[in-house]
Amino acid sequence: MIDLRSDTFTLPSKEMMETIMHAKLGDDVWEEDPTAIELEALAAKKLGKEAGLFVSSGTQGNLVANMTHLNRGDGIVLEEESHINMYEVGGIGQICGAYPFLIKGEDGLMSPSDVEAIFTRSYNVHWVEPKLLCIENTHNRGGGKIIPKSNIDILSNIAHENGGVVHIDGARIFNAAVATDMPASKIVENADSIQICLSKSLGCPIGSLVVGTEEFIHKARKNRKAVGGAMRQVGIIAAPGIYALNNMVDRLAEDHKHAKMLEKALNEIENIRVKPVDTNLVISDISSTSYTANEIGQKLSQKGIKVSIMGDHLFRMVTYFGITTEHIETVVSTLPEVFL
């Protein structure tokens, strides 16, 4: 089976498994796990921030960051199809107690004028005040779209000039870095916090990180504890993260090449519209065909290929570590058959 549903289906390499066997361990709740400490420092350095915090998942990382930035009743500005808004069980509301200002973007890209209109509203006793701007880069439902650094900088300046702070959901930020040939630290230099995921394209079995200032991470550590995210000998799952950050970033270019192969094949099929592929996500709109996404998903599954259904007429394919050129060639040759 060729599973293209998500890059969360990556399996750790032999080298990653070996790091687990040799990880130095301690109690991370007491901040004494040397492997977790090393990973957190490495992540902070890679992102150009002062400190880092290991968390169990990207959702937990975003939640802890948002809890740390926000007080109950504060406003959070989000692109309406962002992962935080659509796929994190409403944690910003039910746990943070925040009010969402939703902006309709263009494949995840928010207009500065829309963001400015929210942050520059005059004071009114009846209104929620915006405090936090969240940017997702790359943007999942935007088809892995890269949010340009120029846009991030403009939006960050708007937030900062009006008393706000900025969090980047950078679950796939290294995909953006490799595709643009720009250090991740440069892309996020104007953000106050960033969440990065280890268990997607970087190939780790578990884990994400949040980075920011030392003061921010100190507060975030307590919030992580509040939501049950503090663990003990966490070096067992942190060790693959060190390997990933040191060895698995540059190879993301291979995933991007494979995604472009899929994009080309899909664009050659009549009536399929593919979101422009920037990185490793390929989203196809088949509303102009006679098929539903579920029907295509079933037909592909029968031929040994799994895809993710994202709507009545949207399906997604994701490339990642473990998906080879031979796998992609098989998919490319199969696609025309299922649309006959």
Describe this structure in words.
- By secondary structure, the chain is an alpha/beta fold.
- It has two domains: 12-247, Type I PLP-dependent aspartate aminotransferase-like (Major domain) (Aspartate Aminotransferase, domain 2); 251-333, Aspartate Aminotransferase, domain 1 (Alpha-Beta Complex), CATH 3.90.1150.
- It has 14 helices and 13 strands.
- It has helices at 14-21, 34-47, 58-69, 83-86, 91-94, 112-119, 149-161, 173-180, 184-187, 214-226, 235-247, 252-267, 293-302, 325-338; strands spanning 2-3, 51-55, 75-79, 99-103, 130-136, 165-170, 193-197, 208-212, 273-274, 281-285, 305-306, 308-311, 314-318.
- A hairpin with a 6-residue loop joins strand 9 and strand 10.
- Helix 1 (14-21) crosses helix 11 (235-247) and helix 6 packs parallel to helix 7 (149-161).
- The chain starts with a strand and ends with a helix.
- The model has no long low-confidence stretch (mean pLDDT 97).
